[in-house]
TrEMBL record:
<keyword id="KW-0472">Membrane</keyword>
<comment type="similarity">
    <text>Belongs to the ATP12 family.</text>
</comment>
<dbReference type="Pfam" id="PF07542">
    <property type="entry name" value="ATP12"/>
</dbReference>
<comment type="function">
    <text>Plays a role in the assembly of the F1 component of the mitochondrial ATP synthase (ATPase).</text>
</comment>
<dbReference type="InterPro" id="IPR042272">
    <property type="entry name" value="ATP12_ATP_synth-F1-assembly_N"/>
</dbReference>
<keyword id="KW-0999">Mitochondrion inner membrane</keyword>
<protein>
    <recommendedName>
        <fullName>ATP synthase mitochondrial F1 complex assembly factor 2</fullName>
    </recommendedName>
</protein>
<keyword id="KW-0809">Transit peptide</keyword>
<dbReference type="GO" id="GO:0005743">
    <property type="term" value="C:mitochondrial inner membrane"/>
</dbReference>
<keyword id="KW-0143">Chaperone</keyword>
<keyword id="KW-0496">Mitochondrion</keyword>
<dbReference type="InterPro" id="IPR023335">
    <property type="entry name" value="ATP12_ortho_dom_sf"/>
</dbReference>
<dbReference type="InterPro" id="IPR011419">
    <property type="entry name" value="ATP12_ATP_synth-F1-assembly"/>
</dbReference>
<comment type="subunit">
    <text>Interacts with ATP5F1B; involved in the assembly of the F1 component of the mitochondrial ATP synthase (ATPase). Interacts with FMC1.</text>
</comment>
<dbReference type="GO" id="GO:0033615">
    <property type="term" value="P:mitochondrial proton-transporting ATP synthase complex assembly"/>
</dbReference>
Length: 245
């Protein structure tokens, strides 16, 4: 944390996009690049993160700022193809594809909660996914992977950074795309990603504050990543709606 060193936060339009101003200073990335985002709506959202900081700046709460820094600095130096391949690789270990046989109650819960999402994804993308109780996981057809590669290629680099961020939170490409396509809510996606943990909590009880904190943190990161994808990939209708709100 760092002491808040500015009074006012504003946005302005520059040559490369929209910039964030902290008083009269322009925000920079960790690698000292000018912090410039592609849409006004995203700039407003980032400015809101900075403006909501109190006496100290809690960087760990500023997920949109962090995602923008990652998109601008690209610290891992990956190109679009590498980002897409990394995202699709999650299919091989996707949370909703790995099932248990014991205990029967958890196996039934996974079937009832995860099967509808898998079925939706198979219909939505015209692919075969399936599930498995083997430690090796399901055998995902190459055609399924290539379909997701083609679909993800329709997103720009900024949005892909957000998609990968959401996938790493949920440990699932299927849940992430269901969320980004607005088939399920953030709360539902997080619940489905934590299904076994929630089952154990219901059975053995909640550890006071710890589980609740983890749940809230996961929801916050997942919501921020999803918002980031939408603000980086959609048209001005989102911008106008955000400004009106």
């Amino acid at each position: 944390e760092r002491k808040r060193f500015y009074q006012n936060v504003s946005i302005s339009q520059g040559e490369g996009g929209f910039e964030i101003n902290l008083d009269h200073r322009k925000l920079k990335t960790p690698q000292a690049r000018l912090f410039t985002v592609p849409s006004e709506a995203l700039a407003i959202a980032v400015a809101t993160e900075w403006d909501s900081q109190k006496d100290t700046i809690k960087f760990y709460t500023m997920h949109l700022t962090t995602l923008c820094n990652t998109a601008l600095d690209n610290p891992t130096q990956r190109n679009k193809t590498q980002l897409i391949r990394a995202a699709v690789k999650f299919l091989e270990t996707d949370t909703v594809c790995y099932r248990v046989e014991e205990p029967p109650a958890l196996a039934e819960l996974q079937k009832n909660e995860w099967d509808p999402v898998v079925a939706w994804a198979e219909k939505r993308y015209n692919v075969t996914i399936g599930s498995s109780t083997s430690i090796l996981g399901p055998n995902i057809p190459a055609s399924t992977k290539e379909t997701f590669v083609s679909h993800l290629a329709s997103y720009n680099m900024w949005a892909l950074q957000g998609i990968e961020f959401v996938i790493t939170q949920l440990k699932s490409l299927i849940l992430s795309m269901s969320l980004i396509d607005r088939h399920i809510t953030v709360e539902k996606a997080v619940l489905l990603s934590r299904l076994e943990e929630e089952y154990q909590i219901r059975r053995w009880g909640n550890v006071e504050w710890a589980h609740d904190y983890d749940l809230c943190e996961l929801r916050a990161r997942t919501a921020a990543g999803t918002l980031f994808v939408h603000l980086c990939s959609e048209s001005s209708t989102v911008k106008h709606k955000l400004l009106q709100d």
